[in-house]
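ok so i was messing around last nite and threw this chain in just to see what happens. nothing serious, just curious
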Amino acid sequence: MLVRASRPPMLAFVLPGLGAGGSEHIVSLLCNHFAAQGWSITLIVFEEPSAPSYYAYHPEVRIVRLGMKSRRRAAATGALAMLRRQRRLRRALKAVRPELVVSFLTRTNILSVLAARSLHIPVIVSERNNPALQTVGPVWSRLRQMTYPHAVGLITMTQGAMDWFRGAMDVKGWVIPNPVPPAGAAPDRRSDGRTIGAVGRLVPQKGFDLLLDAFAHVAQRIPDWKLVIWGEGPERAALERQRDRLGLAGRVSLPGVTERPGDWIPQTDLFVLSSRFEGWGIVVGEAMGAGLPVVSFDCQWGPAEMIGHGRSGLLVPNGDGAALGDAIVALCADPARRAALGQAARERMADFGHDRVLARWQSVITSILDHHRVRAGS
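result:
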């Protein structure tokens, strides 16, 4: 193939920032994977030069920080702010001159297509959420409609998301799920462990308010169990007030983001996903890969593509707090079933292993690079 026979490929990945989210995680894996093969990899982010990275990067990955507002979900919706970001990104791309740009998240995708188009650099855009339910606003929604058809391709994590985009615009696309970390040795979990864990940004999408209500209704039925919600975000104060109002201050803790990725896993005995909607639900895969029993809302999209109900986890109707609470109680009372579901979950996650998923990304990227090198006559 051309990519293997000629010069090392030059890729630029574009992200809002280098935080602890799922998009940042997959980008770190991709950058490290390609850099280890000798590819020239640049990661461009909008945040300040002093902003730290939650995930570790290969020493050959060049990170370019554009020195702009660092919050991942900064609402840069004004025309002037958008133009400023686009111009700064275009300058960075012009300096780096990658053969291909791979961008993540809606607003960044739009800016990447706009910035790269006049430089004649092809762009892959990757959506990491549920476009049917995620609110991006009318301006960004219209810009997405206008710009995505100019990308060389779209990557989503679920077929549901891809079907939505193909119904809304003319795009070529691939469905590639998130990878699950290597399982390693089966954890030696105590049958008397009593911690229910949940992980995610403290935002309405993650449904931690629903989880608190569900836990409050069943707390007396599982008096020895506690709930820990790992993550940070704008809903912290509201969730803490709700917890205290429900009389759960001694049973529920919100310790923030773990110091290292995955530190929450050995501290968890039963994992719960309470999201109203998802792009995939990467923490579900992480929990299952580690052999944790999982209870999840059957939200769109992602959990049902990983969990076989009753076999490798439990799915309950989306938004049904009573059903969520009942499922939690059922597993809390049955350590043998927790162990069986956890083992089946580990086996199921073999389909989403790092090597398999990264190979799919590489196949897509290599085919696009080959195509454009042929067109360029290189």
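not much to say yet. DSSP finds 13 helices and 13 strands in the chain.
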